[in-house]
Amino acid sequence: MKIVTLCTGNVARSVMLGYMLTTLSEVNGLDWQVRTAGTHVVEGSAMSSRTRDALLSLEDLGEHRYGAHRSHQLDGGDVEWADVILTSEANHVNFVRREYPSGATKTVVLAQLLSESTPDVTFDEQLHQVALMTPSGFFDVDDPAGGDQATYNACAARLWSLSQAFASVVAHDESY
User: Fold this and answer.
1) In whole numbers, what is the pLDDT of the chain averaged over residues?
2) Residue 34: DSSP 8-state
3) Using one digit for the tens of pLDDT, what is the confidence trace for 69-81?
4) Smallest Cα–Cα separation from 142: which of 95, 101, 109, 107?
5) What is the spatial distance between Cα 26 and Cα 81, in angstroms, rounded to a whole number?
6) 3-state secondary structure of 58
7) Is the terminal CB of the chain with fewer CB neighbours within 10 Å at N or C?
8) Rounded distance, CA 50 to CA 64, Å?
9) What are the structural domains, with CATH classification, of the chain?
10) What is the model's pTM?
11) Is 144 helix (H, G, I), strand (E, B) or coil?
12) How confident is the model at residue 131 (pLDDT cuts 50, 70, 90)?
């Protein structure tokens, strides 16, 4: 599965989620390729030190080269490449729908996708159903930008929980 994680600046939420999904893929033997991107990016920026420290605070996350990350603006190539685009908030879904209509059927708010998950439906069917819904801000993962380390750690903890739930849902779908 080819996954793009998407947030605003590609220096916090999408980065955290990208590393988390990469870890879960490796640990669970899943064939996932993960890219991260943002909707309004200063291209080439490193993740913030608070993002890095929040990732390092998660013992189960494993070892990664966090210094290698550079921010990337979502582009048409990312949208075409992806099987699914997992966003942090409803505004990101709306951005993809507006700027890349071809990606609308594979772009969802991660927490909204998980809230609609049912064991009787394949992941692809669930993705399609949720992608047709109006994205709800109720499921947003708040942007920690401007917050203290505790805010970043809380964001990372929420994303870690969501990423584990996502891995569980996908792992139960035998087509992945």
Assistant:
1) 93
2) E
3) 899 999 999 999 9
4) 109
5) 20
6) coil
7) C
8) 16
9) 2-171 (3.40.50.2300)
10) 0.95
11) coil
12) very high
